[in-house]
Prior knowledge:
Elements: E1 2-6, H1 11-20, E2 26-31, H2 34-42, H3 46-49, E3 52-56, H4 62-75, E4 81-84, H5 102-122, E5 129-133, H6 157-179, E6 185-190, H7 204-213, H8 220-223, H9 225-232, E7 243-245, E8 248-249, H10 259-272
Parallel strand pairs: 1-2, 1-4, 2-3, 4-5, 5-6, 6-7
Antiparallel strand pairs: 7-8
Helix pairs in contact: 4-5, 5-6, 6-10
Amino acid sequence: xxxxxxxxxxxxxxxxxxxxxxxxxxxxxxxxxxxxxxxxxxxxxxxxxxxxxxxxxxxxxxxxxxxxxxxxxxxxxxxxxxxxxxxxxxxxxxxxxxxxxxxxxxxxxxxxxxxxxxxxxxxxxxxxxxxxxxxxxxxxxxxxxxxxxxxxxxxxxxxxxxxxxxxxxxxxxxxxxxxxxxxxxxxxxxxxxxxxxxxxxxxxxxxxxxxxxxxxxxxxxxxxxxxxxxxxxxxxxxxxxxxxxxxxxxxxxxxxxxxxxxxxxxxxxxxxxxxxx
Length: 277
């Protein structure tokens, strides 16, 4: 069994990596920072360190993702589980080298490209699985498909984040629909409100609320439990495409269940990434 995970060097991603490594023959750490990745690997028990390998990927650069895919394909014959864990919220609007708003690129478009380009490798597995880390914040989404990168409208850090967390759920449902017949399972999840450095880039009212909420937050160890559960356990086919919370299927917003929204997101994602797909 081979696992690939984005964002494995901090927060719930680091916990997920450590806890799942014993259950896999090989683990690929898809991350930007080689020093942090090597530190994560050296922190494993000695007998597990040879299982883990770093692959450079920057989800804010589509060229970087394409290069990482070539590297992955040279290292492994297939992938059994892909966990799209990386993400963030950014107080100031930032546009990537590819012209995409950073929240959209780092939380959705990067994972959309990565997953789709790795699909042939996933489908070589007898039981392939894609797990997308979303959030209850998806319920506050206000999507304008005509301006996903805020080129025209005023940027809101929280709305941008809520939108991409909705996209994580819609993407998971689309993957289940499109590839279920070929054996793929896809899930999204809410990790809980976790006390990590996640909101270090946030500002304004969101950062203030985050500070006040910290005493009530759960640990990264607790927040990683649903990712770990989905990563190592066999999940019923009846739950394919589901959104999980506390390791159980949970309710989503009406938008997250909308087939029209799924189709619009897939169409617009393909349109934006046409150059790399």
